[in-house]
Design a protein that fits this description.
- The chain is of the alpha/beta class.
- It has a single domain, classed as Rossmann fold.
- The chain is 40% helix and 13% strand.
- Helix 2 links the parallel strand 2 and strand 3.
- The radius of gyration is 16 Å and the shape is globular.
Length: 189
């Protein structure tokens, strides 16, 4: 038997936009428990594994704490929207957007360093252009969940005031927004 709801919030994207940093800040809040692993990809490529598998990603969660996960790939997968809405219709969604060229450049050099990318910078960056058509990617989420249940954040705001950035998320989730996680002061990339 599963706990209802499965999750209270889901980070849906965008990769190379401080998703690990955001997840670390969320996991440090005493009222929030994050999935293990951070990126479950359950509503995407692991959906066939079933809800028992997904629930196992939260086996460490207990009590009344909010449950969440952060899988940046969700924003790019159109099947995810209906799966989330059908199975956790009350979930709140979080997305952090980064300037397109900065996001693409960071992703290119990240994959290049891992030996995955053999393309030139121009080929690698242009080949990912669909990933930064944010309005097109977000519109179905906004239409399905409503603007009040989708928090849209901007990467550059972290640089301006990382504590205010994190507090905005805490306010959105309805947890104590006076809490400042230690990671709020760490490098975010």
């Amino acid at each position: 038997m599963r706990r209802e709801p499965l999750v209270d919030f889901i980070g849906i994207g965008v990769g190379k936009s401080a998703t690990s940093w955001i997840s670390a800040c969320l996991s440090e809040h005493p009222e929030i428990l994050m999935s293990r692993p951070k990126e479950t990809y359950f509503f995407g490529k692991h959906f066939r594994r079933g809800f028992d598998w997904y629930e196992s990603c939260f086996k460490h969660c207990h009590g009344e704490n909010l449950r969440g996960e952060y899988t940046p790939g969700y924003l790019l997968d159109p099947e995810v929207i209906d799966r989330i809405h059908t199975n956790v219709p009350e979930a709140k969604l979080i997305v952090c957007l980064r300037k397109p060229i900065d996001k693409l450049t960071s992703a290119y050099y990240f994959s290049k360093a891992r030996g995955v990318n053999k393309e030139t910078p121009e080929e690698g960056i242009l080949g990912q252009a669909e990933q930064v058509k944010y309005a097109k990617l977000l519109q179905p989420y906004l239409e399905t969940f409503g603007r009040d249940r989708v928090l849209i954040l901007f990467f550059d705001d972290i640089k301006t005031d990382s504590v205010a950035f994190v507090r905005k998320i805490f306010t959105f989730l309805g947890v104590d927004d006076s809490f400042v996680p230690p990671s709020a002061y760490k490098k975010r990339m």
